[in-house]
């Protein structure tokens, strides 16, 4: 397979933003100006700024190795993040198959209560939806490492936990309270709902789910008035005709919801990062002013680990199946191992996203590179002359680019152009789970012995229906009258199949 060259496969603004040119051009311009100054002073004036280049080779080699190690370490984290999402896909698929296929549809519990097929389908499909909700919750939890939006301030004090629109329809049926009668005190409320069931959005004002109101349209205004995100009033749209929210349940929430996908808009500072120093100074001053104005005003902060709570519900469902005797120990072990795999993967993803490279290492490496590039023109101007200017620019672009790439891919969970496409992973899991639940698990005898099945092809192209109908005539060996009808002839056919397939596939 010949891979296409990304430089010649068509350029766009999105591809340009995926490069590190926007991040390194101010530094490259600065060191290029230094090189121009050194070259012009040395060539046009009697003063020579050239110094010995004895340390150029040694320091360049060491610095190159350190930058290479930095980039390789970041890429390992990028690859590990991709492997973790592969584990989520595999575990989700296995859990859905065990629940949908191996848990019986017609069941009688220990209290002699019979569960109908419709009730069983509703129960199992709801649990499969929870499996889908796990990947969506992990995606949103990972994206918040770079994009703020889960916690939104209401008024002066209250902070509420804002769920995304692609997650709420999958988990809105879970119990909101620690007991069916409701919470005796606010401390009895489950963590998932504790931060949002406050005075601003009481549960008793909630509107029941309806098919006449869209989840996306009903609370755009409410979230726009409370949230701080730039894309809060827009739906998730990866293309003009693509709306993943249309594939979810139509539930009207009693609280504001944030968009399923809310990447930050590219602003002026993204294209001109040299001016970020002024933004930093302004934000620092304004932050200190806010601290003085609201020094004693701190609102309640309630966090919720949604993926962990989903695995708790899945484990409770497994315990329920075991208590009723509806799942064999071997399948229960497989289901438990896959739930544990989801928990391990969630922990590893959190480790990748919350463990950046130590600041001392990053700062020392960047300062060492700056010093090397600053003194580079002084060391090569005696040999290169005016070529020092483009040579320094190329060296700065090369070294600073690799350093910036390492920082770019260090945390692959977000909305940067080079980050992993977590939305695509979640949508792939959603498609697979719906495909699993689309099968009705019929009896194998209903589809195996049919006229459409030719199990012994290419040596024998008769259908399974013809083979079973002519069993006494075509597949009984004369020398083995006591053997099972047809076995000797079938063995010869299978041997011929192997020879024919081996010959055909090697041509």
From TrEMBL:
GO cellular component labels: plasma membrane
Where is the chain membrane-spanning?
24-42, 49-69, 370-403
GO MF annotations, alphabetized: chloride channel activity
Protein biosynthesis: present as a keyword of the record? Answer: no
Subcellular location(s) of the protein: Cell membrane
Q: Where would you say this protein principally sits, based on its record? A: membrane
Which Pfam family would be a valid example here? Bestrophin_2
In the bilayer, the protein is annotated as: Multi-pass membrane protein
Q: Which InterPro entries match?
A: YneE/VCCN1/2-like
Region annotation (Disordered) ranges = 212-237
Report what the protein is called: Uncharacterized protein
Q: Which UniProt keywords apply?
A: Cell membrane, Ion transport, Membrane, Transmembrane, Transmembrane helix, Transport
Signal peptide residue numbers: none
Q: Indicate whether Transmembrane appears among the record's keywords.
A: yes
